[in-house]
Structure formats: structure tokens, C-alpha cells
Amino acid sequence: MEVQNAMIMDPNMMMMMPQMMAMAQMAMSQSSKTKKKFTPWTEHTSPDGRTYFYNSETKQSSWSKPEELKTPSEKLLSKCPWKEHKQAETGKVILLQLRH
């Protein structure tokens, strides 16, 4: 008899499974209960197709996405010192390290 796609689990891992499941369920229920906070920022598209952001309270526009609108993963990426940049002339994508 041939067994395919068998998974061998560490006994310690098996003991942690109920805890991991409970944590996942708790995280899912919290995220579904999270209400969206009011933000004065709205997303728009310029006539040439670029995305910009407008703040109705300050009457300011920005090409950069405000922190308030960023997803958790976008917030994490914004802390990374390396950024991708596409060269207009060649179309090459290069990595730049930003220094503050």
C-alpha cells in the first residue's frame, strides 16, 4: 500500500493546534468587529490616470497615500529602508536605500 501526501506532525505541534485555532478564530472575530474610523482623506484619480488623495478638512492633496488609509502591510512596507524605483527612460526597476 502506497501513502501519498502524508504529513508527519510533531507531537508538541499537535498539542498546540487547539490553541492556534482559538487564536485564529479570535483574530478573525476581532477584525470583523473593527469599525472603520472616520478619515478626512479620500482617494481620487487625476485626468492623466494617476491616483491622488484629498483631505477635506485641510483642503490639501497628496500623491502619497496617507498613513490613515494604509493597510497594515502597507504600513510595514513604508518602514522598510529599501524602495523600488522604475526608471522612466529605461523601464528598469532598481532598489534604492533611503536614508533619513
Task: Report on the architecture of this protein.
By secondary structure, the chain is of the alpha+beta class. It contains 2 helices and 5 strands; from the N terminus they run αβββαββ. It has helices at 11-33, 72-78, and strands at residues 41-45, 51-55, 60-62, 82-86, 93-97. A 3-stranded antiparallel beta sheet has the order 1-2-3, with no helix packed on it. A two-stranded antiparallel sheet has the order 4-5. The longest helix has 23 residues, at 11-33. The chain is flat. Residues 1-7 have low confidence and may be disordered.
Shape descriptor reads flat
Instruction: Summarize the helix and strand pattern as letters.
Output: HEEEHEE
The main sheet orders its strands as 1-2-3
For the record, give the distance between the C-alpha atoms at the N and C termini, rounded to a whole number: 62 Å
**Helical element count?**
2
Helical percentage: 25-40%
What percent strand? 15-25%
Oligomer: single chain
Q: Kindly name the structural category.
A: alpha+beta
Low-confidence stretches are 1-7
**Main sheet attributes: strand count, strand direction, barrel closure:** 3 strands, antiparallel
Overall average residue pLDDT: 77
Tell me how many strands there are. Answer: 5
- Radius of gyration (CA) equals 22 Å
